[in-house]
Amino acid sequence: MVGYVSSPSTAVAGQAAPADASQSRHLRRTRLHAALAAPGGRSITTVYAPAGAGKTDLVVDWLKAVGAEPRAVLVDLTACATARWWQKPLRSPSWWPSWPGNAAELGRALHAGIPEQTGGSVIVVLDGTEAVVGTDFLTEVRQLAAGEDRLHVVLLGRHAPPDGSTQPPGCSADSALRGPDLAFTAAETATLCVQRGLDLPAAVSRRLYAITDGWVAGLVVATAALRGQPHKAEAVLQQLLRTGAGLSEYVMRDVLGRYPADLRRAVRDAGVVESICPELFATLTGRTDGAAVLTDLSRDGMFATRLDDRSAWYCHHRLWRAALYATLSEDDPARARQLHATAAGWYIGHGQPAEGLRHALAAADRSAAIRIVQEHGEQIRQASPQAAVTATAPGPWSPLADDAPLAHAFAVHRSVSDGAAAPPSAVAQPIWRALCQGDHAAAQAALAADASVVGRSPLQRSTRLRLHAVAARMSGRLNEAVRHADAIGETVRANGLVGSHDDGWARLILAEVAVQRGTSDAAVRHLDALAVQLWQSVPALVAAQQFQAALLCQQRHDDAAALHAVEQLIVDGDDTLLVPRWAARVLRVELLIATGRLHDADQHWRADAAAVPASTATITTARLLLARQPQAGIDPLLRPLLDDPHVSLFHQVELRLLMAHQANITGDTQHAAHLLRQATALADPERLQHPFRANRHMLGPTRNQLTPTAITPPAASPLSPGEAAVMRHLAGHRTTREIAHALHLSPNTVKTHIASIYRKLAVHTRRDAWHAAIAFGILPTDDVAPARSRELRS
Q1: Which is it for strands 175-178 and 122-127: parallel, antiparallel or unpaired?
Q2: Distance set, CA 66 to CA 28, 60, 69, 149, 768 (Å)
Q3: Residue pair 561/577 in contact by the 8 Å Cβ criterion
């Protein structure tokens, strides 16, 4: 719920956040309305999310959008000590039973009283399910919903009420929305800013999203503060982070209010660290129930979020942690320093000296900071740092000029925390330089010569895995890149290193793979998660985010937007932070060609070609030649690359596409079809799609003019809706029975549809059917059903 935003406790920079009608209208998320409609005949919808996630606002907006307000009933379960769902509603139609004595009486009244002319289901919204204590609540709800087919129940709350049914979790007919569903995406955050009259630069909009993590209440407070000082956006955001957006009272009272005072203080004290496990919680607070407390907080989806099912570590919501840290620093600064000192000792004892040094400096513990640098200085310098976001950053408490050892400790801390992209290890730096130059073959050879990770610290292991993952991604070994990125994630989660630079690179690699595979939704999710975890600490990752966004625009054939993003990267000088650092320059030439600006493309390429590796330069030159002279013979230029083992998979596919296009122009359609099949066969094992989609303007004429027996499906045989639905699942490695279950069809019907698809597309395998459907636009390019395997999910 977001009704609290007009409270004085949410004032930021001396201004209260208004809660007017326009604010509510702008908080809508229409993409969630379909989930509230209880599809498939289900009569119960659940929406469980943290405080301030906009649950009530979402449901009210949905009721208005579907015209269901006249037949809606709103019940506030928190308004009654017994929290019974048949209690007196806040709002209801005139014929609704005012106050039945029990659930059975309500059921009888509903069965007899619901008018036939209601025009649809009666929607009962039960808000505040966290207030329910009795285990019979859900049983009664299900019984009443099942007994009246015109009744649709929507359960809202911070978590589910106790379940007294014998039905195992996850097997109910309830459809659910959770906190991550309700959170705004980065794109929605930017749209919200525009709707509220905030003309923010893209970088500021991304930072706003990163600070709030799309949390509705945080966005309400932040946008209100920005509207008050639109010309000081950076300063406002910094203040929001330092003070926790003025939400300290709200977090203690509303978010943690159901816990006793001593437990609230313990949670506040644990906020001195960015992520926490039960052992660290016990060390900081002296409590032995850390596992149960963190599990309960995670169950609420509130202050703690478990990193994964196997990890003992939890991370905090950034604004809430900042709010509590600010309260602790202001109310009891001595306690804050003591907790930092305790955390420093714990991290040193658990092999994370870089974190130990940071906390020692925050604790103003001169002797500990100097000792840590003396004993672990080299290991700290070789660490891949965490992107810690502390409300009050560690700073010198005495003149550095008068204290050389302390000044040195600060210098070591700064060298780790400056956010450099390159791993600091002397062994890793040459490998990273090779990757930045685009020489993935040399980087892979160096990695193979020193492949052991035994005996390394967790951060050293993840840094090594990062190098392997980047090298694999650059060469086109996407499956291998995903495996390495997953391994980094496992190391991060097992050691509580969420937010480390290597965690950011793992997320980036997964996003890059998703872009190359054409799964844009997955790419956006990874990029949004990257923005939240490393919101501004690593410039190279920020630049990479913008570059991947440009590639997504290119896939969607919005070449103008892609070109604008790439040119902005180059103007700002951030293109040199990319890996490889020439990637933006090559993409700019491609986009200039696609938009018909051949003169500009030629000029830029004359200036940029010298810095680009030979194979990439050759392919880009051939692209320019084809654009200027369609009859130009590019085969002699490209053919030597066909068998070059050092050419990446991306380039192997791309050069065949260029040669196919040129062959078709010259009338050799048989050779063009052969090259196109070669490109598809090379791309298929890694599920590579980007070269085909980015070059669709060039491949369209080629495909249309190829011999029908080669790869063109019969134009008079489009897929039926049922066949298209089955088509979505053919790339997901699902069995016929699984497809039938997902689509509520019989296996025989699915087999019939598959046979018809093969006949219409003139193919004989699932793989060929999928590629044909994508190639000829029979299926939307992002219309891919989820796959079963872990690798495909990644």
Answers
A1: unpaired
A2: 13, 10, 8, 19, 42
A3: no
* CA distances for 614 relative to 352, 595, 617, angstroms: 42, 25, 5
Compute CA distances 627 → 331, 334, 402, 589, 675, whole Å.
Answer: 68, 69, 66, 11, 19
d(CA 307, CA 293): 15
Last residue of a domain, one of 246, 276, 298: 246
Per DSSP, 255 falls in state I
Residues 770 and 718 in one domain: yes
In a shared domain, residues 61 and 134: yes
| Cα(81)–Cα(83) distance, integer angstroms | 6
Q: Is the dihedral of CA 539, 540, 542, 546 positive or negative?
A: positive
CB atoms within 10 A of CB 168: 8
3-state DSSP call for residue 304? strand
Bridge partners of residue 176, in order along the sequence: 46
Token pair 């703690």 is at which residue? 304
Contact 186, 167 (CB under 8 A): no
Q: Quick check: helix, strand or coil at residue 45?
A: strand
Rg (CA), the chain: 29
Find out whether 302 and 293 touch, Cβ atoms under 8 Å. Answer: no
614 CB-side CA count, 13 A = 7
Q: Which residues contact 144 (CB under 8 A, 6 or more apart)?
A: 103, 106, 107, 110, 151, 153
Sequential DSSP letters for 673-684: HHHHHHHHHHHG
62 contact partners, CB below 8 Å, separation of at least 6: 32, 33, 36, 68
Between β-strands 275-276 and 314-316, what pairing exists: parallel, antiparallel or unpaired? antiparallel
Question: Measuring CA to CA, which residue among 1, 54, 2 is closest to residue 28?
Answer: 54
> Which two three-digit tokens encode residue 98?
């005012």
Three-state SS at 120: coil
Q: Could you tell me which residues come within 8 angstroms of residue 732 by beta carbon, excluding any fewer than 6 positions away?
A: 784, 785, 786, 787, 788, 792
Q: Phi/psi of residue 175, each to 5°?
A: -100, 140
**By the 8 A CB rule, do 12 and 225 touch?**
yes
Query: Do 40 and 149 lie in a common domain?
Result: yes
In percent, the amount of the chain with pLDDT more than 90 equals 21
Q: Say how many residues make up the chain.
A: 794
Angstrom distances, CA of residue 59 to CA of 46, 88, 131, 759 = 11, 19, 19, 46
Picking from 203-217, 589-603, 649-663, 769-783, which range would have the lowest pLDDT averaged per residue? 769-783
Task: Classify strands 314-316 and 44-48 as parallel, antiparallel or unpaired.
Answer: unpaired
Give residue-wise pLDDT tens across range 461-484. 777 888 899 999 999 999 999 999
Number of domains in the chain: 3
Q: Are 604 and 597 in contact (CB under 8 A)?
A: no
3-state secondary structure of 91: strand
What are the DSSP calls for 187-241, one per residue?
HHHHHHHHHTT----HHHHHHHHHHHTT-HHHHHHHHHHHHHSGGGHHHHHHHHH
Where residue 752 sits, what CATH number does that domain have?
1.10.10.10
DSSP helix/strand/coil, 275: strand
Q: Identify whether the C-beta of residue 730 lies closer than 8 Å to the C-beta of residue 724.
A: no
Q: Which residues pair with 316 in a beta bridge?
A: 304
Contacts of 68 (CB under 8 A, 6+ apart): 62, 120, 123
721 and 766, same domain (yes or no): yes
CA distance 479 to 310: 23
Residue 68: inside a domain: yes
In three-state secondary structure terms, 80 is coil
The residue among 792, 723, 794 whose CA lies nearest residue 761 is 723
Nearest to 530 by CA among 557, 549, 511: 511
Q: Where are the alpha helices (DSSP H) in 332-362?
A: 333-349, 353-362
pLDDT tens sequence across 702-738: 554 443 334 444 444 467 778 888 887 876 667 888 8
The answer to whether the predicted template modeling score (pTM) of the entire model surpasses 0.85 is no
